[in-house]
Design brief:
The structure is a homotetramer. The first copy, chain A, is an alpha/beta fold. The first copy, chain A, has 2 domains: 121 residues, NAD(P)-binding Rossmann-like Domain (Rossmann fold, 3-Layer(aba) Sandwich), CATH 3.40.50.720; 164 residues, 2-Layer Sandwich (Dihydrodipicolinate Reductase, domain 2), CATH 3.30.360.10. Chain A contains 11 helices and 14 strands. The longest helix of chain A has 16 residues. The two termini of chain A are 33 Å apart. Chains A and D meet through strand 8, strand 9, strand 10, strand 11 and strand 13 of A and strand 8, strand 9, strand 10, strand 11 and strand 13 of D. Chains A, B, C, D: Its main location: cytoplasm.
């Protein structure tokens, strides 16, 4: 039984890790930390976990956590994870960091997040479909929710070299903004509404650029995020503009489907769907559903993907990474359907 | 043209007063106050009013407001209205107070709200369907949203003396909780949920008791409020339990319908509907829709009513009161349908 | 491994049975029937099950189903289950019927549903918390969603003899109305709305009466259902009116809590919560959360309960019944938290 | 008083025309037709109009309608309007057609809609901001909802010649799909979901191309529609890709704002907002709110617009056209704010 620690368990990501671990036959949460909730029971805070989890929040040191756990998830805000990760690693624990602190090269991180990094380490970028080196790794940086959805949607076609530019128009559920109430998450502002923000400047651009450039140096990536009236889920519409040289020369629907099936043949959580995916079909699950259509003009392919932002976009992908790091089957404890309807 | 002032314009009630006044041919908002928004334009705060309202928030004294206005709406929290109302009245303005400060007799107010009243005055209770004395009044206390919906739903039958007890099970949109974000109004907590609160102790009980007791001394009234995933609206389910002496002796459907039509024959905003009312049909309007069904047991009548909590439950009823206080037609500027769908 | 058949798998109940069985370590769906979907894959119909379920819809005879399965869930409409159940039982399969055909005594069924019963059998009423005889039974009638939520909320207090009358005001998600689109389920009609229906005449009254009368003969039960903007869940507000002899004599909060804890001490899926329950906390799970408050008047107790109508109100309770009928642990495959947020 | 007829009043567009006309001081609905609803009162069908409208549905001939009305709105499906429009015009009525039958040149219509046109006439394209020739016209084709939102969002910049291509990613409320229930509009399918459809082939492309090509011949326009959990509204995200020759040479934020203000200086319903627009701020109103941001790369401008699809996207724009056709002030009866929150 893998012993798991969760550092920073007051938010949605921590609660979701506990929910998913409760479904995992080979791993067990043994420790969850939160300074402000110390002593409270998990079930009084994450009320859906009442009776299922008997843990209480604690406030131990990194060394204590590392001693009690085989692997630790750091689910604290960016800028705080760096205060935990090196000590945890040095004390011998494996670590999956769910913050942004270790997803980008040092300089890119510092520029994107506008802060000095106090404790940089190299991490494996934890998107197993694009990074097989997750297997057996000791330290993994879990990707952002938008970059996961965006990168997976187009990786096969970008890898095939067809793309001049991809315009990602992303629609997220509001849980991505966290557990704390805000003007945006105020029900009268969010219900029946669409909210666009950081139209051209969202920080997740850096991760998307990083992943797409690896697959096809020089490809342009644009990214505009929106929030729609949904708690969970990211629906990504990727408008892939074809390089001039390939206009009218790209494969037909069946050909593109082959490219996807081949690219993702060892990726059990990718489901290619015959029409268009839907948030409802992935809600609560670790699947990433993908569909597409080729514009009759031959110069644009529209790819749409759906994930649950808290699962494949965060805690589920973290468990998937854990499985691979610990030598367990990739789908262990994660092979269940979404909750739809 | 009636000159209108709004004291406390930063919240939903203030914004709604401006929206409704923009549709009123005989009245005009000339002043809106907010200490914290002083100098800001209305359209930057209540963005739906951009271009329609050219007012800026101001921070004048009560006397200044009274001088510039024929009638003033005080839309500040309970406990604050009492700092404005006496001065406004003494300076010659008519006043509709939308807070709870003047809805109850002095002792009842102090007990219910747990505070000393610093400036009590007698007010007319501003529910025109039950209080014709609103016409020509100088000072009106606008009722709470729940009491409006509850009282109107059963007044004819309680007045007829059939009721031993009424159990009000009320379902409100979340805008009733105001413009400030909270745990309850956080979209992930409110969407797809039902939240019950103050199961037996909500302060609006006092107003409901007051109105029902006037119609039938000794009738018991119970009240349990809920919030449902809706911005606007209160749907009230009134379970009227028949006095023993009337069990099996109450009128049939047609007879009860006659009682309602007779009771509300001079009340243009009450619509008796053939089946059940719906929040969608009243949203944005000043109507109160009412339907009912008699239990085959003969000992219970279920009456359901729908209002928009921000209109008939607050700002619309305030305008209706203004019309009557100023001698204008009751429906002036309010005779428009809800926005449904 | 228990071999499970599902008769009538095109609707929400059938899909939910498959979802829950995919999480069950000791049972496996081996057959799912639907005449109109014959030959289609489950994943093309219930898209969240894509890749997880490899079944196709079939159209076998009852005898064929019984031969391949240890236990069969009949998830067809009332009036149709009676065409399946006797043959399945006679062929040696255990049966959980999710329709209304076997929940009531013959005469009550025929009167309530306005039809002749063509093939009556005696069944155990499948609410394990109130019917321990489910253990080892061969044929169980799975209760309706509203009656499950209503009965569980008040059984301890009704059983204690305090109740003169209970007014159940129930708020359901729209999935209870099924998978077929209708005027009620049309998004513009349902969103931001509350819909009351069959204010005094819903058929589920009969089941509620049956259960409450067993606990306290002569108790009056009233029931008014509503639909609120939610896919899943039933939130029940039970207004329990105390018998005259007990007014002012009922136990205090701690005392009532003891009554509940004692009554449900062997019922793992009942969670007594310190404040009020929430649909979000039970969504997707088999839990029934219960909270309450005693009216200061001493003559009313308000109890509120939350279940997922598709799980504890249908398919989850069916699996719970299966576990008990087959001699498995009651919580096997069902001991997971809801999906909240 | 302008006498108005509505042909085809059973749907959302017809109901909305009645709602808006009830707010118009200079026009009055005198006739509403529906074959299937003949004899029913408007208030029994569009329940929000109960008491406000006293019309009944009728089934008169085109000539009868034309005789009783100064102007007629045809709100019937495409393919049916062509059976009404020529007779209405020939009988002397002015006509605003809300269907697609007269928005496109004959050949483009027949190709796009896959049908022969049985009665073609030339119409003015009824988007007053781009077509001043609406003023005084006798026959106007009211634009589609998506094309209205899309064209208005980028017209000034496309007109300025900066655009190589515009990728429109549009998010609509479900009321655009009409009043009849469907799988898509089924609440469990729509709530908390995002649905993309016709990723590259929606018919409204033709109108968008028509309008953008008039402003800048050769500009490429892509269009992908989505439905989000909202009843009303279209939120359009326009990714404008700058021509190579202008990369890095486009005006700054203030410059682009000047271009918009100049272009729309005579368009009262266009509101340029300082940040991003919101469906909530335009809901129920005829406004089109627009905001934008320039990508730091200098090769993309993201423009976002919000309209109410049933108002500015249909019935409100129809009234705006009526005002101009009849010589009334453009804003008459339409100068009111949206309902937000």
């Amino acid at each position: 039984m893998i012993k798991v620690g969760i550092v920073g368990g007051s938010g949605y990501t921590g609660g979701e890790l506990l929910r998913l671990l409760s479904l995992h036959p080979g791993a067990e949460a043994v420790c969850i930390t939160s300074r402000k909730l110390e002593g409270k029971s998990v079930g009084d805070v994450h009320t859906h976990l009442r009776a299922v989890s008997s843990l209480n929040f604690e406030s131990p040191s990194p060394a204590e956590v590392a001693e009690r756990c085989d692997i630790v998830f750091t689910a604290v805000p960016h800028g705080t994870a760096m205060d935990w990760v090196p000590e945890l690693l040095d004390a011998g624990a494996k670590v999956v960091d769910l913050s942004a602190d270790y997803r980008l090269p040092l300089e890119v991180f510092e520029k994107t997040y506008g802060m000095k990094h106090r404790a940089f380490r190299e991490a494996v970028f934890g998107m197993p479909e694009l990074h097989p080196e997750v297997r057996g790794a000791d330290f993994v940086a879990n990707p952002g929710c938008y970059p996961t959805a965006a990168s997976l949607s187009v990786a096969p076609l970008v890898g095939a070299g067809f793309a001049e530019r991809v315009v990602f128009d992303s629609k997220s559920g509001i849980s991505g903004a966290g557990i704390a109430p805000s003007q945006t998450s105020h029900y009268p502002n969010m219900a029946e509404n669409v909210i666009a923000y950081k139209l051209t400047t969202h920080r997740h651009r850096a991760e998307i650029n990083q992943e797409l450039s690896r697959l096809s140096p020089g490809v342009k990536a644009n990214f505009t995020p929106h929030v729609v009236p949904a708690v969970r889920g990211i629906f990504t519409t990727a408008h892939l503009l074809v390089k001039d040289e390939f206009v009218g020369e790209i494969p037909d629907k069946a050909g593109i489907e082959r490219i996807y099936r081949d690219f993702y043949k060892d990726s059990p959580f990718i489901r290619l769907v015959p029409t268009v995916p839907s948030l409802a079909a992935v809600r609560g699950s670790n699947f990433c559903d993908i569909g597409f259509e080729v514009d009759g003009s031959g110069d644009r392919i529209v790819i749409v993907s759906a994930i649950d932002n808290l699962v494949k976009g965060a805690s589920g992908q973290a468990i998937q990474n854990m499985n691979l790091m610990m030598g367990t089957a990739e789908t262990e404890g994660l092979w269940f359907p979404g909750g739809g309807p």
